[in-house]
């Protein structure tokens, strides 16, 4: 069974580019290895991440993230079973958003997803768009 968790959190400190790169590279490698799809966005001292994948693995990954000292105030916005992945076809499955070009690509992908009229997908899209725009 597939599951998605979408969370937001505060960074415990401003992350310079080297720390951001370290987080992004590790997250991308681990998520690809664990068959996790989704996105990770860091903006204005905040993270938003969508994780999609096998039920137990998504829970395990989230549990590990929740103990990472670089996060505080973790809040699960979505924690539910899913029939299909939202981000499976986006940039090889898991993307770290750290450049304006990637934000634009993500926004275009979200616009394309909206045409599918999937209620859960539209909730995730709305949260990601709000995070990007604010």
Describe the structure.
The radius of gyration is 14 Å and the shape is globular. With about 130 residues, it is an alpha+beta fold. It contains four helices and five strands. The protein has one domain (about 1-134): Alpha-Beta Plaits (2-Layer Sandwich), CATH 3.30.70. The model has no long low-confidence stretch (mean pLDDT about 80). Helix 3 packs antiparallel against helix 4 (about 120-134). The protein has a five-stranded mixed sheet with strand order 4-1-3-2-5, sandwiched between helices. The longest helix has 17 residues, at about 15-35.
Radius of gyration: 14 Å
Number of strands: 5
Q: Determine the N-to-C terminus distance.
A: 33 Å
The biggest beta sheet is recorded as: 5 strands, mixed
Strand line-up in the sheet with most strands: 4-1-3-2-5
CATH architecture: 2-Layer Sandwich
Average pLDDT works out at 78
Order of helices and strands: EHEEHEEHH
Low-confidence stretches: none
Strand fraction equals 25-35%
Topology:
Layout: E1 2-11, H1 17-33, E2 37-43, E3 46-54, H2 55-66, E4 71-82, E5 94-97, H3 100-114, H4 119-133
Parallel strand pairs: 2-5
Antiparallel strand pairs: 1-3, 1-4, 2-3
